[in-house]
Amino acid sequence: MPVFFEWSDELSVGIQEIDEQHKVLIDLLNVLHDAIRLHHGSEASGHILGRLADYTRSHFMVEESLMRILGYPDYDEHKRCHEDLIKQMNDLQARLLGGEAITFELMHFLRNWLINHIMEGDKRYTKHFLSCSAQATSHKKSWMERFWAKQMAF
C-alpha cells in the first residue's frame, strides 16, 4: 500500500534543520494514518496525535526563535498561522478524548495544511534565513534528525 504522505524535494525550504523537522512531521502523520487505517483504536491514535502535537509545538518554537533571532519581517503573521494550527490540534485532542474518532478526512486536512504551510508560508523565509547565514540543506543527517528518528521508534 502506498505511503499516505511522502517527502519530496519540492517541499524543501532549503534550510537543513527545518527540512529535517518537516520530515519528522510527515513521518508522524504517516504513523497516525496507519493507526487509523489498521484500526488500532482511539487510545493508540490519541497517543500518536499527542506526539504529533508535541513535536509540532517544538517545531514551531524553533521556527519562531529563528525568525526572531534573524529579524524575519513577517514573524507576526507566521506566528498567527502557527497559533491557529495549535488551537486546531488542541481541539482535535479534546474531541478525541470526548470519544470522537479521527477520520481520514481529518488526516487529509492535516496533510494539506502542512503542504500549504510549507509551500506558502515557510518557503517565504528561506531567502531571508539564508541571507543571515542559516545552514542550507545538505544530504547529511543532522544530530536533530538522528535524535528524532530514534524518538519515532515505538
TrEMBL record:
Pfam families: Hemerythrin. It comes from Iodobacter ciconiae. It comes from the Bacteria. Residues 14-124 form the Hemerythrin-like domain. One of its GO terms (molecular function) is metal ion binding. This is Bacteriohemerythrin. InterPro entries: Haemerythrin_Fe_BS, Hemerythrin, Hemerythrin-like, Hemerythrin-like_sf, Hemerythrin_metal-bd. Keywords: Iron, Metal-binding, Oxygen transport, Transport. CDD domains: Hemerythrin. Belongs to the hemerythrin family. NCBIfam families: bact_hemeryth (NF033749), hemeryth_dom (TIGR02481), PRK00808.1 (NF002007).
